[in-house]
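Figure S7 source data.
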Amino acid sequence: MLVTTNDMLRKAVEGHYAVAQFNINNLEWTKSILLACEEKKAPVILGVSMGAGKYMTGYKTVVAMVNAMVDSLGITVPVCLHLDHGDYDACLACIEAGFSSVMFDGSHLPIEENIAKTKELVALCHEKGISIEAEVGAIGGEEDGIIGRGECADPAQCKLIADLGVDLLAAGIGNIHGIYPANWEGLSFETLEAVKALTGDMPLVLHGGSGIPDEMVRKAITMGVAKVNVNTECQLSFAAATREYIEAGKDRQGKGYDPRKLLAPGAEAIKQTCREKIDLFGSAGKA
Ligand code: 13P
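Tokens for the predicted 1,3-dihydroxyacetonephosphate complex:
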């Protein structure tokens, strides 16, 4: 059965480690992530962006696939299915489809509107027993062009949103999605410290977990980050392993073109990335 983030993140805050959110893109991704987390006995949050949901033909397909896979693989670790960066309508659709958690990303809206919509969704989610993540301070991405640092959230605004009863909070602390530019200035620990001071035990979320130096990730976790989101690193390791297979001409040997063979090295590479992240975040054995 899918679970909310509540229990796993409360334990993470108390135990000073972070639970991984790995984003899923298809069946292979889901299978690799679930198997790696089971092997590591680590709780996991499967993130689904609106684009990935559409790619997989809709949220209902995702819910059916994840539920069935948890069952058929005999997964025993806690698994949360979480909408990543949803707009208002996507949150409603995921609540309806059977997700156990959603993220409402109102960070690009005026703060009053972010507050009003977050408040409405908090009530709806809690009525249904679903956890909800909110965001303050937009987390940029590589498509925004060359940036030295992502946005830093206003700690007072974080407190306003935290007080609405959200279960977890993403605050921009200079992090960005995708590959970090060479001139990136690093995480703003001053912002993290200020946000933590005002939000207490609220589990904080670090987006853009790919490519942040390990030391910075460890420090952020000691300062209150209880969930780290990873997507790009799984994509990069999958792509590199698949490229290697094809460049070695293996798809032309025997039945090497069979997708079950062609996608196998990439699937194994995703597992390895997951294992490394789980070790870095300290969530191994915490299921
Ligand atoms: P990366 O793709 O940079 O790992 O970010 C993932 C993320 O934050 C999803 O919300």
